[in-house]
Amino acid sequence: MLTSKVAKRYAQGLLDFTNESGQTATVFSEMKDVAKLMSESTDLNKFFLTPYIDTKKKVEVAGMIFKGLSVSSQNLITLVIRHGRENQIKNIAQEFIKKVEDINGVQRITLTTATQLSRENIDQILKSTNLVKHDSKFDLQVNVNPEILGGYILRVGDQQVDASVKSKLNNIKKDFNLN
């Protein structure tokens, strides 16, 4: 997923502020909630993206929705809305989460399979590769994509292992076309 420069800058500013004020852990937890809420609520996204709704009204509604958050998180959301960047709230939250996890040494792992796998099979795949640092924490996201036909695609950070049937069939097809 590509993150905009705007989201990266706001997230870095928030991270710098929370590091100075000692609120990183609190805001990290809150940004997870914000990202989840923005991902799940299409109505809230539509509301924030509606151009004819006044900025003051958006700030007021955001204040009611996010009233349980710390002052730092509320101020960030208010600032983002006042600058007309409310469409970036989810991206800013996700980027902040990513930056904090990077600082804490958390590996991001994405496993794409053709069908749902058991936990044992997932663990077996993770143990079979040297890309995963087993002694550190990791954030695992499992996706199901029937288009890969079988096998799996394992992505760890910026490295990828493509052991999917679709990829193998495409390679065979290329070999036939070359000969």
Question: Could you walk me through the main structural features you see in this protein, from its secondary elements to its overall organization?
Answer:
- By secondary structure, the protein is α+β, with helices and mostly antiparallel strands.
- Helix content is 58%, strand content 15%.
- The protein contains eight helices and four strands, in the order ααααααβαβββα.
- The chain has a four-stranded mixed beta sheet.
- A hairpin with a 2-residue loop joins β3 (151-156) and β4.
- The radius of gyration is 20 Å and the shape is elongated.
- The two termini are 37 Å apart.
- The mean pLDDT is 90.
Could you name the key traits of this structure?
single chain; 179 residues; alpha+beta; four-stranded mixed beta sheet; 8 helices; 4 strands
Q: What is the number of strand segments?
A: 4
Q: Taking Cα atoms only, what radius of gyration do you get, to the nearest Å?
A: 20 Å
Put simply, the count of helices is 8
- Tell me the major beta sheet: 4 strands, mixed
> What is the strand content?
5-15%
Instruction: Strand order, main sheet: write it out.
Output: 2-1-3-4
Helicity range of the residues?
Answer: 55-70%
Global outline? elongated
Mean model confidence by pLDDT = 90
**Ends: how far apart?**
37 Å
Task: Outline the low-pLDDT stretches.
Answer: none
* SSE order: HHHHHHEHEEEH
Structural class: alpha+beta
